[in-house]
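Example record for the data management plan.
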Amino acid sequence: MGGRVTRVFRNFNVENRARREISKEKPTPAPRHRTARLDAVADSPEIKEEVLRKDDQFLNLLKDVYVESRDPPVRVKDGGGKHLPSKQEEKRLTKLGHLEALDVKKVPKGKISLVEALTLLNNHKLQPQIWTAEKIAAEYSLDLKEVNSLLEFFIPFTVLEFPKDTKKAITSQNQKRLT
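Corresponding structural encoding:
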């Protein structure tokens, strides 16, 4: 509601006020700052000559000045090891089969890549007597407790294909026509 009221007062007599501003002869210029007057003085030849003149007294004093500069010894800042790892992680090469191009080549010990995880889950599913949790833990440098949890809670997908003779086929002879 307040916006409507202010808009009415703002737009009141807008055209007449605009014509009045346009019809003025020349807008009054803003007052000049005193530094603008100094620019005109700086262009005078006397000031230029004074600036370019050499002062022998100052030159002699300048020749007596000798500056010797030495770099301070370099100190290594101890950041508490925030940016650098405190110990190097041991890495192992991945054990990949035909999917080698899809995955990383080196993995930290105690971890596995996605392709390795799918491979070991599939191996355990197909041959659980050979691929036991102990063998998987030794093979991939994993903790036995984590391997047991992995085998318990993650199961790879199973693809089932139905034989063709059990599928019900739609015959075109028995179709009903819509009228």
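Summary line stored alongside the record: The mean pLDDT is 77.
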